[in-house]
Amino acid sequence: MGNKIQIKKFGSESISGTISLSKNMFPVPHYVAHFLWVGKKDQGKGLASQLMAEVERISRESGEPILLGDAVEPDQNPLAVGMYGKRAGWVQIPDSKGEPTSRYIYGLANPKLLTVFLNYYDRRF
């Protein structure tokens, strides 16, 4: 299943921001959020936060965690790095050595499941 969530400019069909959401079944059912984008003219207006709020709502309603599929690299977008750390419920995923990575997950409070995720995705990071 793949969904694209979009925000359009009020009163028009012009897209101001978007994020893609896909469903994965392994290692446990979860969603992966990819390609968060907000147009240059619309950045700084809270649109990325609105998109993330919708993604978080989907996680809460489905009871399934959401993995941020795109790494948040400080040198590429320093503003985005802080956004996830500030949002309640998003956890920075450590690597196999316990060091922080540029990956985040939402809605996964169970430490055993987090370990399963880490083991599964460690090979993919």
Characterise the protein shown here.
The protein has 3 helices and 6 strands, in the order E-E-E-H-E-H-E-E-H. With 125 residues, it is α+β, with helices and mostly antiparallel strands. The protein has a single domain, classed as 3-Layer(aba) Sandwich (Aminopeptidase), CATH 3.40.630. Strands 1-2-3-4-6-5 form a 6-stranded mixed β-sheet, covered by helices on one side. Strand 3, helix 1 (47-62) and strand 4 form a beta-alpha-beta unit.
Give a topology summary.
Elements: E1 2-8, E2 15-24, E3 30-38, H1 47-62, E4 66-68, H2 78-86, E5 90-94, E6 100-106, H3 111-122
Summarize the structure.
The protein is α+β, with helices and mostly antiparallel strands and 125 residues long. 30% of the residues lie in helices and 33% in strands. The protein has one domain: Aminopeptidase.
Relative helix content: 25-40%
- Note the gap between the termini: 23 Å
Strand arrangement, largest sheet?
1-2-3-4-6-5
- The CATH topology, please? Aminopeptidase
Spans of at least 5 consecutive residues whose pLDDT stays below 50 are: none
* Structural classification: alpha+beta
Instruction: Please trace the helix and strand order, writing H or E for each element.
Output: EEEHEHEEH
CATH class: Alpha Beta
Write down the domain tally.
Answer: 1
How many β-strand stretches?
6
